[in-house]
Specification:
Length: 572
């Protein structure tokens, strides 16, 4: 067993003026920046075409240069890889394609030496169908593990118990010949849902979590955690009646007395629910990953496969709502993208004409908000979506499943490809672009998913060499969060609220004031600066064109122009 603390982990920041009085206990993750690694696509050390732990260890120096404090590691556990590791067959071992438990321990240690903690992906709404619990459970109705999963008898005509659907297509019920019953799965049929109502299941999970915590990990990202309190018979999946009681029980049984970061993936959270999770007095999680800004770009009926045009006013409303609602109670996660979502610059920016400008603008707009920012691998160099012409070049179980289901139901091939190009998960999963070498320096073998052909311009080596790169812009933003308490703890006020192209806001703490202005469009903008901002002058913290140190009566912004000014707010 390996027990390590992260050197230099104390908070290090003076309690800022204006905060001493508050009851908020500051936590190390309040000014941390998280970097998500999708291991399969990050760095392949042994040349089999699949990224691995040794590859991640090789890149720790790079991550230290970037300045991040936490790695959220997508699952590396033993798995048949039906959903690239989100289907776990052994929680206490590493998938051989990723490495060994020894290498995992080495990753934890080596990361700690660089002041980086490792947050593991906890996938406990379901297991793989190859998990020994499920292998046992399906053997007979009286098997001791039967009740670890959710089984129901067929209806009289043999059809599934009800009409619930699985996220990756098809019924949520799979018939199992051996015992003549259906089992429940909200994802693929190879991802049977665990029965959280069974206290033995919960005990096993808590034991496993403690086993990992004892290895010195920095916390857990909790996969689709809002589903664990479900009530299957009433068709309630997200935000079920037992969700919060289970999380409080989990907190008490595992990480409650450890100083770790816990973040729940919660597609169904609204701010009220997010406060239940992240109000420290309730002892549940540090924060949630909520998706309201993501889902507002989806079609109300067809969902992500039919994206809506980007609407900045709607986005601003959502961003401001979460900033305001969680201002005093709870904590936000801040992100534009992850391994399930399209690339930020492709979704919200202009990857063709203004890739660098718009990627920097997006970074600035997000990183000055209150909450913990998450960077998804490759975002820091402005990686873009990919457009494979053939469906055969895609690997993602969701894209393939839905393609099959919808084209069979009459949706045109072109329409489905359009949806996959815009929102398919493989956009995020093409290999990390390290250099101009073969396969973008990701692997000397044949990558499991094709590399995006734009790697010759967009890669880490080029970004490191260019002081004006997106990467150096991210480094600066990460550093600023450590230096400026107003970014971490300041209050939030939207500016230019009704403007359809500009997302702007200010953050204030004590007499420090940071004004952040972002043009979210390729069109130039001319702004009338409101009275209370005129004459504001100070230090330009970041910009993606020439720096601005002050605001006059009028402000002209170029395409995707963005900057932040820090000032003393003696002013109005
Ligand atoms: C989460 C993961 C996603 C996975 C699903 C099922 O949404 O982020 O990648 O497919 O859960 O585990
Ligand atoms: Ca490998």
């Amino acid at each position: 067993m390996l027990l390590i603390g992260v050197p230099g982990q104390s908070h290090g920041m003076r309690l800022p003026a204006g905060l001493e009085e508050s009851s908020v206990e500051t936590k190390w993750w309040h000014d941390a920046v998280v970097y998500q690694i999708y291991p399969r696509s990050f760095s392949d050390a042994n040349g089999d075409g699949i990224g691995d732990l040794a590859g991640i260890i090789d890149k720790l120096d790079y991550l230290q240069v970037l300045g991040i404090n936490v790695i959220w590691l997508s699952p590396v556990f033993r798995s048949p890889m039906d959903d690239n590791g989100y289907d776990i067959s052994d929680y206490c071992d590493i998938a051989p394609e990723f490495g060994t438990l020894d290498e995992m321990e080495r990753l934890i240690t080596e990361a700690a030496q660089r002041h980086i903690r490792i947050v593991m992906d906890l996938v406990v709404n379901h297991t793989s169908d190859e998990h020994p619990w499920f292998v046992e459970a399906r053997k007979s109705k009286d098997n001791p593990y039967r009740d670890y999963y959710i089984w129901r008898a067929p209806r009289a005509d043999g059809t599934p118990p009800d009409a619930q659907r699985a996220s990756f297509g098809g019924s949520a019920w799979e018939f199992d010949e051996a015992t003549g019953e259906y089992y429940y799965h909200l994802f693929s049929r190879r991802q049977p849902d665990l029965n959280w109502a069974n206290p033995k299941v919960r005990e096993e999970i808590y034991r496993m979590m403690n086993w990992w915590l004892d290895k010195g990990i920095g916390g857990f990202r909790m996969d689709v955690i809002d589903l664990i309190g479900k009530d299957v018979d009433r068709g309630i999946t997200a935000n079920g009646p037992n969700l919060h009681p289970y999380l409080q029980e989990m907190n008490a049984a595992t990480f409650g007395d450890r100083d770790v970061l816990t973040v729940g993936e919660t597609w169904a959270a609204n701010p009220e629910v997010a406060k239940l999770y992240s109000d420290p007095r309730r002892a549940e999680l540090s924060m949630v990953f909520q998706f309201e800004h993501v889902t507002l770009t989806h079609d109300p009926v067809e969902g992500k496969w039919k994206p809506r045009p980007f609407d900045l006013l709607a986005l601003k409303e959502v961003m401001s709502k979460w900033q305001t609602e969680l201002a005093d109670v709870g904590w936000n996660s801040l992100f534009w993208n992850n391994h399930d979502l399209p690339r930020a610059v492709s979704r919200y920016g202009d990857p063709e004409r203004y890739r660098v400008e718009s990627a920097k603008m997006l970074a600035t707009a997000l990183h000055f908000l209150k909450g913990t920012p998450y960077i998804y691998q490759g975002e820091e160099i402005g990686m873009t979506n990919v457009r494979f012409d053939s469906i055969d070049d895609y690997q993602d179980i969701e894209s393939l499943g839905l393609y099959r289901e919808r084209t069979a139901a009459g949706v045109a091939h072109e329409a489905m490809m359009e949806g996959i190009h815009a929102n398919g998960r493989d956009n995020a999963r093409t290999p990390m672009q390290w250099d101009t070498g073969s396969n973008a320096g990701f692997s000397r073998g044949r990558p499991w998913l094709k590399v995006n052909p734009n790697y010759r311009e967009i890669n880490v080596v080029a970004a490191l060499a260019d002081p004006g790169s997106i990467l150096h812009h991210y480094r600066r933003l990460i550093r600023l969060r450590k230096e400026r308490a107003a970014i971490v703890h300041g209050d939030y006020q939207p500016l230019f609220d009704a403007h359809p192209q500009v997302f702007a806001y200010q953050r204030r703490l004590g007499d420090e004031r940071i004004v952040v202005i972002n043009n979210f469009s390729p069109e130039p903008v001319a702004l009338d600066v409101p009275e209370e901002l005129r004459g504001l002058a100070g230090e330009c913290l970041v910009s993606n064109y020439a720096p601005h140190q002050q605001l006059g009566e009028r402000l002209a912004l170029q395409a995707y122009e963005s900057f932040a000014i820090a000032a003393r707010s003696a002013l109005a």
